[in-house]
Specification:
The chain is mainly alpha-helical. The chain has two helices and no strands. 95% of the residues lie in helices and 0% in strands. The N and C termini lie far apart (164 Å).
Length: 122
């Protein structure tokens, strides 16, 4: 073998090793790229789920606020009615007590009439 043949053979071997090293580097870079893309897809999916959840919770919050406002208005209206009805109730209770007190002193008209009829029939 000549010196040119050995150098050429050495160069070919060196070129093949360099080529294999570059192929391995490219394969590693592709694998890294696929991993990064997979992470990006996962993050986008999570972002979509979070956005959907946020939209749903925001809608529920609006509904809860509307319901709270409606219930507060109903409560306030019922309190106003109660405040209006309390004096009337007190007046009616006083009147009932007055009538019950007066009724025990004298029998009703129907009882008095029944007594007169009974006494007349005797």
């Amino acid at each position: 073998m000549t010196q040119d043949a050995t150098t050429s053979e050495g160069r070919d071997r060196g070129d093949r090793q360099e080529l294999e090293r570059l192929r391995a580097e490219v394969a590693e870079a592709r694998h890294h790229l696929l991993t990064v893309q997979d992470h990006v897809v996962g993050i986008e999916a999570e972002n979509g789920r979070l956005h959907r959840d946020l939209t749903r919770v925001t809608m529920e919050l609006r509904q809860a606020r509307r319901r709270t406002k409606r219930l507060t208005e109903q409560r306030d209206e019922l309190r106003r009615r109660l405040d209006d009805l309390r004096p009337r109730l007190d007046r009616n209770r006083a009147r009932v007590a007055e009538l019950e007190g007066a009724g025990s002193a004298r029998p009703s008209v129907a009882r008095r009439a029944a007594r007169r009829v009974r006494s007349a029939l005797r």
